[in-house]
Amino acid sequence: MGRQLVLAEKPSVGRELARVLGCRRGGEGYLEGDRYVVTWALGHLVTLADPDVYEKKWEKWDMADLPMLPQHRKLVVIPQTARQFRVVQGLMKRSDITGLIIATDAGREGELVARWIMAKAGWNKPAKRLWISSQTDKAIRDGFADLRPAADYENLFRSAQARSEADWLVGLNVTRALTCKYNAQLSAGRVQTPTLALIAAREREIRSFVPKEFYGVRLKLAGFTAVWRDANGSSRTFDRALAERIAEACRTGTCTIRQVRRMRRMTPPPAAYDLTELQRDANKKYAYSAKETLNLMQALYEQHKLLTYPRTDSRYISDDVVPTLPDRLRAVMTGDYKPFAQELMRRRPLSTRYLVNNAKVTDHHAIIPTEEAPDLWQLSGPERNIYDLVVRRFLAVLMPPCAYEEVELTLRAGDHDFTAKGRIVSEPGWRRVYDRSFRLEDEEEDEPQTLPALEQGQRLSILGASVAVGKTPPPPRYTEATLLTAMEHPQAQVTDKALQKILAETSGLGTPATRADIIEKLFSAFYIERRGKELVPTSKGMQLVELAPEDLRSAALTAQWEDRLARIAKGQERDAKFVEEMRAYASRLVAAVKASDAKYTHDNQTRKTCPDCGKFLLLVKGKRGEMLVCPDRECGYRKSVTQVTNARCPNCFKKMELRGEGENQMFACVCGYREKLSAFQERRKSAGAGKRDVAKYLQQQKDDKPVNSGMADALAKWLEKNQK
């Protein structure tokens, strides 16, 4: 009897599938049972070949050899994971394997992972597709009971392959052209560069902004405050003398209530989360980066099986998911969520008007809890925070709207009009799920005041009037939350009406699954740096935007490309046509770089020379501290100057930096605390830090990929010494 080979994307997912399918016999890189053999990739095992595989001359970076436009794509096995590829290839060639079940992530990139492995390994037997949105045992069993033909996803694969080829053609050609032209480590890409252009444009606005002082008048009355309004309804004036005259005229006496308006309003619950919205809220509330949130979601989806598939762009569910909602509510019936889940269960049938919309569900529905009951103590703090966001949003979207009465008073004091607004909540509805810190983006920042019971025509005594002074603020710098919004809706960045319409109909910059990686690339290339929550472009980033071809900076163009890739996935456009256009486009971009007469300046150049090639080193700020980097791409030397560590300051408990070299290495904190590394080691030893603590710390540093971490090196020596 033949067996089915199941190909997962990661070992952790593969082992879970094997457990559910009863595959218990282990081999190198796979698990086997009576009916199934489960194996896995390690992410991508196969990728597009580097330029030198096509042409030997392309091994050297030379402007004369550009553009690089190979006639046919070539796939190569990634050297670092070649061993696992050989395992998968061997299993595919086994005589008892009669079919393949593609069980990689259910999305565009997951499809590419599997198809390229199949192509490189020479798979020519039948194949089916497992397409599930959660990793619970029930979802896995249901998915295997409803396998789909792999051919149904052929267009999705073609879309993924076209995206990869376009990035190769545009990214590698323009990156080499810029690097060769300006003798600097510069890179560009069809999504990366327009995203950087958004940040750079905002920085130029801030630098050119000139603040203006404005004035307002506040009227103090018994129990509330009213604000002066001009004939156009504005509460601001740039005429200080006018504001002071109004305040002086209204400082004493009485005012009359001219109008009392009472309006019943309803605020519906916010829609369920897609990945981008979750990344926004996690950044606003917990300062998590987009990449951190995605990684936490992957753990909650794959390891803990508590949340559904994360890489989704839908905020709704389809009708077929509705019967599972009671089980999902029972699963979250714990802790703070229990009273709300119980209330919803008593209100049957469930109100799903704000959650169900078949027309707005694409490959995957919104992120919601699974039917798996959580062991909250097993979650890390950050995992618990993300789980909390999703569960509260899931409960909120099933609850009734918030009902309130809005009261607006219009008052007359002398010859001047004032207004006051208040709000009385009659039914909090979904807001009960959240604490008072929760606020929707489109709501007013000022908390509505409570107004006393007042009637039209009533006269009130004025207790005082004052002039309020403010300054027009510059546009705010992007945070990861607001940058994700700008990437999702780039039409807000342009003024041309026709262009806005085109952008509104496309999917924006990148996809929910790729936006986090794009932001991380901007950090790793030293194009942007983080100051608190703000993202600030470096000089290198600002210059790159000016040096890159104008077309490549366009949010409109790359958004249209993503729309075309979506059309390829739906079978509405041929992938070959798209790739051929990208070949021509790459040629035009290279020509534009060659013809440019712009200059690039290293304004972060130091007087320290590279020990390998002798060039002056550049001082750059990475995500984990400052480092010296050689500007020569072929040299690649880099050295840590200051390293942000996981060691906490004993005074203020903030993370400390490690500075210096050798015996002079010292911890430094922003609060002013200083401590030598040797003293730190003694303090840790006396506090009971053992070999296991140090090993764990070293692993954390390793996971964070530090560069030349002096502290990690020193602790490694300490650990080695104490193990002897």
UniProtKB/TrEMBL annotation:
This is DNA topoisomerase 3. Belongs to the type IA topoisomerase family. The gene is topB. The record marks 61, 168, 176, 311 as: Interaction with DNA. Releases the supercoiling and torsional tension of DNA, which is introduced during the DNA replication and transcription, by transiently cleaving and rejoining one strand of the DNA duplex. Introduces a single-strand break via transesterification at a target site in duplex DNA. The scissile phosphodiester is attacked by the catalytic tyrosine of the enzyme, resulting in the formation of a DNA-(5'-phosphotyrosyl)-enzyme intermediate and the expulsion of a 3'-OH DNA strand. The free DNA strand then undergoes passage around the unbroken strand, thus removing DNA supercoils. Gene3D superfamilies: 3.40.50.140, Topoisomerase I, domain 2, Topoisomerase I, domain 3, Topoisomerase I, domain 4. It is an enzyme of class 5 (isomerase). One of its GO terms (molecular function) is DNA topoisomerase type I (single strand cut, ATP-independent) activity. Its EC number is 5.6.2.1. Keywords: DNA-binding, Isomerase, Magnesium, Metal-binding, Topoisomerase. PROSITE patterns: TOPO_IA_1 (PS00396), TOPO_IA_2 (PS52039), TOPRIM (PS50880). Residues 187-192 are annotated as: Interaction with DNA. The active site is at residue 309. Residues 153-590 form the Topo IA-type catalytic domain. It catalyses: ATP-independent breakage of single-stranded DNA, followed by passage and rejoining. Residues 3-136 form the Toprim domain. Its cofactor is Mg(2+). The keyword Transmembrane does not apply. Mg(2+) binds at residues 9, 105.
